[in-house]
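tool_call: predict_structure(chain=1)
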Amino acid sequence: MREMTLEEIKKTEIEILDVIAKFCDERKINYWIDCGTLLGAIRHKGFIPWDDDIDVGMLRPDYERFMNEFNGYNPQYELRCFENDSKWIFSFGKVCDTETFVDEGRREKFGVSVDIFVYDNAPDDDNILRKMLIKRDILNKMNSARLHNILKPTKGNIFRKISVHSVRLILRLFSRYYFVEKLIENSKRYVLEDTKRVGNFSVWGFGYCSKDVFDSFIDVEFEGKKYKAPIGYDKWLRAQYGDYMQLPPVEKRVRTHPFAAYRKTSV
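tool_result:
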């Protein structure tokens, strides 16, 4: 295998995004570039200069169709998610380039990918909504701690080290995939109800926004190409980032999740 440069990784991610966009357009499945990718499109017309990944968002009905129909569309690309792989350790999906390999130091192996985030109906009751978001964050913390190597060094004094190690040991009593399953269950709690809001209940991040954000979709520029964004992208981005056109402090303009990626080579 040959290690890929950062520019090669970004190019591969765009190629994956192109396949996703083409597939969704052909089948009239709504998607949008999401999170930092959408922010980058609006503020920079491409990648945020210190970012290195691509995110896509879908509402639950579109995600269900995408999940059931995508694999087999192009043999080079595969959607991996808990719904089609009960041993998947993330509460979101990834469309992976099977001709590449990413080394994140985990047992699970996958290629360079585009993350697929699914958004569900959020309850109209603020108290119930708040409890669902709190549950999401607790489950995410427990899932993250469960996946850590028990012997991984811990910062802090001896009491903190003992506490962290004890928690890791206790969490080992749960299945490796238990907390992912519970995160998805929490997210789908109102899937059959007609609510006025949509929420993020499976991954870290912001909480919720009104559904009128997704009344329709428009094209926005990202790295010289056009991809979908929700008509209410301004409200969506403000819910996530506040004044999103304001650049963060210089010290925060760093790559947040570096990884090594490799291109498989023929013998």
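agent: Helices lie at 6-27, 35-44, 60-69, 126-147, 158-171, 178-187, 233-241. Proceeding to next step.
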